[in-house]
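Researcher: I'd like a candidate sequence for this fold, 97 residues long. If you have to choose between options at a position, lean toward the conservative one.
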């Protein structure tokens, strides 16, 4: 009886982790030309409404974004946007800082 409980517990955890991994691996398609970070955030939120994105508008007001990507991860989008700048980001669970 103990072994059945352990088996089902492990099976449940494996299935849960696979489902979470699938939701994090959803790909984004974004096309922006000389737009603000706020426009980028809104585009990301359309594709990933369960994510929380934190940023300081005053800091990013001067940064303009031109990006055209299809079927890429959130990290790939942010890497491309912030490459060549002094800005950094972090993704923790469903939060982007």
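Model: Candidate sequence:
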């Amino acid at each position: 009886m103990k072994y059945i409980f352990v088996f089902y517990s492990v099976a449940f955890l494996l299935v849960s982790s696979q489902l979470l991994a699938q939701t994090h691996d959803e790909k984004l398609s974004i096309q922006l030309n000389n737009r603000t970070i706020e426009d980028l955030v809104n585009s990301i939120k359309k594709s990933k409404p369960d994510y929380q994105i934190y940023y300081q508008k005053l800091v990013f007001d001067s940064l303009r974004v031109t990006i055209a990507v299809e079927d890429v991860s959130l990290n790939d989008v942010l890497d491309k946007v912030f490459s060549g700048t002094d800005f950094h980001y972090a993704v923790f669970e469903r939060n982007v800082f």
